[in-house]
Amino acid sequence: MNIRNARPEDLMNMQHCNLLCLPENYQMKYYFYHGLSWPQLSYIAEDENGKIVGYVLAKMEEDPDDVPHGHITSLAVKRSHRRLGLAQKLMDQASRAMIENFNAKYVSLHVRKSNRAALHLYSNTLNFQISEVEPKYYADGEDAYAMKRDLTHMAEERPGRAPPTWRLRVSLLCPPAHGGS
Fold this sequence. Notes:
Layout: E1 2-5, H1 11-21, H2 28-37, E2 43-46, E3 52-60, E4 69-77, H3 86-102, E5 106-112, H4 116-125, E6 129-134, E7 144-150, H5 152-156, H6 164-173
Parallel strand pairs: 4-5
Antiparallel strand pairs: 1-2, 2-3, 3-4, 5-7, 6-7
Helix pairs in contact: 1-2
GO molecular function: protein N-terminal-serine acetyltransferase activity; protein-N-terminal-glutamate acetyltransferase activity
InterPro entries: Acyl_CoA_acyltransferase, Ard1-like, GNAT_dom
Subcellular location: Cytoplasm; Nucleus
């Protein structure tokens, strides 16, 4: 199994995966909008034959008055490849990319109130919190939970990033160099 950044040529297969897995479907232009506007945020999981078996479609919210934050538009894993940790890996990859590329402080998503498996993943595995209920959010009239995941801890744990106290000690030991003699 391989997880990698989605490329433009993956978008049609991502849509196909969506059609197989989810009741919420999007037109192709929506995939292109995400893929071209935020190319670093969407990821695919592919099997050993290079076939897409899962994806996460993500974007940044563009409210200039709010703190930078991302949004998961869609997450799907084919039934044959579920319970392998792919959804968690896809979500973590997209979240890390939001932090590294856009300094995101949190990520949001919507989930059907009846989707117990997704709620378990988001709440118990990925530490999302329900922020509100959105009545009749879905086309069929079902309510959605709006959920948020704080990314500040993930930002502090980035590989290769020294803890704040270590950076402070280094700056005290190595004062900035000054020009001249």
